[in-house]
Amino acid sequence: MGAMFPIMVDLRGKRCVVIGGGRIAERKIRSLLEAGGDQLVVVSLQHTTELERLAAIGSIRIRRREYIEEDLLDARFVFAATDNPSVNARVLNDCKKRGILVNMAEHADQGDFAVPAVVRRGDLVLSVSTSGSSPAMAIQIRKELERRYGEAYAEGIARLGALRAHVQEVEPDPESRKRLLREASLEMEERMLHSQYDFIPEEDPAEWLNRIRIAASRRHEE
Hints:
By secondary structure, this protein is an alpha/beta fold. It is 47% helix and 14% strand. Strands 3-2-1-4-5 form a 5-stranded parallel beta sheet, sandwiched between helices. It has a two-stranded antiparallel sheet with strand order 6-7.
């Protein structure tokens, strides 16, 4: 696919249309939901049991018919994920005409964007892409990242977020804020790496900040 620009997109309020109702379409929908997508439309005559369940609870909308160009109205992102090459080609051409970004599930190099392999740990998002050259390698690297960054990171990142908000309120000096937050990040990384049960004891942000200040002061004196 050549050089691509990595980007994180807020999907809230943006219509995403998935053409197809099989396993590939289901995986696309699952990843969109995990990323906060709330305007998801599936177009297909047949659907997996999971897609039917998601439609029943209101997570997605299903249009139970074959694809037509009007399905692209108001779409921001489109995913061509059918098992029919001619339908996927029509979706691609229609999106190009309308200036809509499209992902081609079977032939990523033909579309406008690729979907990377992703590891999510709360607010921590790690993504891997080989730009379509080797999806298998991207999946392998993702599995390595899953082992390296356990569930403890979700809680740890949330704690760091709370501390950052507190530091921004009480510490006026930008350089001091940066130094303190860097110290906290290094400490949390160490705690997460050695968390045997994916659990990190809770600590009040003010107490945590005070402890970091004391430790930093002692190191400076040494």
